[in-house]
Write a structure and sequence with these properties.
Blueprint (H helix, E strand, L loop, with lengths): L2 E10 L6 E14 L5 E7 L2 H19 L5 H5 L4 H14 L4 H18 L9 H14 L4 H20 L25 E2 L2 H13 L8 H14 L3 H4 L7 E2 L6 E4 L10 E4 L2 H14 L13 H4 L5 H16 L28 E3 L37 E2 L1
Antiparallel strand pairs: 1-2, 2-3, 4-9, 5-6, 6-7, 7-8
Length: 391
């Protein structure tokens, strides 16, 4: 039997100091939902309004129990911020990085705030189109940024439909725009001479963002040769390397990999020599010490690797002249990636510990000239210049 009731709380009387009972302002309703569970919820400070809301809840439960109303229709009327909170918990449960989850949620909240949606039943394509138009034409943001917001809100709505919080995907008809028509920053890989000068600038330069120059140079080399992302590089310790195997390998554990699986990469012999030489100077205190403390997930601090690379590019620019713009280690959110065309250029990924029989011939895919020797690698090394991009 549904009913209205008042709730009370005990407070200290400021005059007498005694405990007195005080009413909560709202009337509360008690009713049984479609699943037979007793619910108690605050309704309204006005008793007539509270009674009307309670009657609606009882009727909704009756219709849902008889199959005349779907659970999704009911969920769609809940405050949308409750769904966003649950969407954020969904990302946390899937162990997505805090930064990734935060950026997705902030974008969803920005779209919802602009559109003025109070519940999911108000979601409309034209509202999102208006938001994206304002973002590009009024705020001057790029098509790439516009696509990122659209991607975020569409992923939220897909999650709503998948979890029966909406009947249908109302944004299914919205498509990404062509970013090639709005190039704000043209991206290209560093050529071998530029990459050599970047390494030289790092190795001979002072500390930046808490990393010594030789550590930064090794970080760039590993990024270029392995294709590992910022967070993956930030997880590496001595335990990650197997110098005894042939060829030597480096492993990123599944908990740090973007793919959520163990990733193993082959290391070229010359890079192994450089690594061993660097480790002699680095002298890690233990096998488990993080070699590159740049990721909050492994060392508690997120270092701005973009500032670090800008610092070394500024030093290299003295020699390069035309080199400009910003270079970043890929963190899963940027279009700038280390080592694009992995595989075609000869760097192989070994997954799930299933090592293939690999001859030295795979390294002949890389042809390199003596110009790279300026980075200290020697005249016959292979081309890691594809591993870092500038824009």
């Amino acid at each position: 039997m549904a009913s209205l009731y008042k709730r009370y709380k005990w407070i200290d009387d400021p005059e007498t100091g005694k405990k007195v009972k005080e009413e909560y302002p709202n009337w509360w309703g008690r009713y049984v939902d479609a699943h037979g569970i007793e619910r108690r919820i605050p309704l309204s400070a006005s008793k007539p309004v509270a009674q009307r809301k309670l009657n609606e809840l009882v009727e909704q439960a009756r219709l849902e129990k008889t199959g005349l109303v779907s659970p999704a229709e009911k969920e769609a009327k809940r405050p949308i911020h409750e769904h966003i909170d649950d969407f954020e918990k969904h990302h946390a449960a899937n162990e997505n990085s805090e930064q990734y989850a935060h950026e997705i949620i902030q974008k969803v909240k920005a779209v919802v705030a602009f559109c003025g949606w109070r519940n999911a039943s108000q979601i409309r394509e034209n509202d999102v189109e208006s938001f994206l138009y304002d973002l590009r034409k009024v705020q001057g943001r790029s098509i790439q940024t516009s696509n990122n917001y659209l991607r975020a809100i569409k992923s939220f709505v897909r999650w709503m439909v998948r979890n029966k919080r909406m009947v249908a995907n109302l944004l299914e008809g919205l498509s990404m725009l062509n970013t090639r028509t709005d190039r704000r920053h043209d991206r290209r890989p560093l050529d071998e001479n530029e990459f050599a000068l970047l390494l030289q600038a790092a190795e001979t330069g002072p500390p930046s963002v808490g990393l010594l120059g030789r550590d930064r140079a090794m970080l760039y080399l590993l990024a270029g040769w392995t294709g590992f992302r910022r967070g993956e590089l930030g997880s590496l310790s001595l335990r990650s390397f197997n110098f005894g195997s042939h060829p030597a390998t480096v492993t990123v554990e599944a908990s740090y990999s973007k793919h959520r699986r163990k990733d193993v990469q082959i290391l070229h012999p010359n890079l192994v020599d450089r690594l061993l030489e660097w480790l002699e100077k680095r002298k890690p205190a233990s096998d488990g010490e993080i070699l590159f403390p740049i990721s909050k997930k492994t060392c508690g601090t997120d270092r701005k690797t973009s500032d670090m690379i800008q610092f070394d590019l500024a030093a290299a620019r003295v020699y390069i002249g035309s080199l400009h713009g910003g270079l970043v280690l890929h963190d899963g959110l940027h279009t700038v990636i280390p080592l694009h065309d992995i595989g075609r250029r000869g760097v192989l990924r070994i997954e799930n510990g299933a090592h293939a029989v690999i001859d030295e011939i795979i390294f002949l895919i890389f042809r390199h000239r003596a110009a790279f020797s300026g980075a200290g690698m020697g005249a016959e090394e292979h081309e890691p210049g594809d591993g870092l991009h500038i824009h």
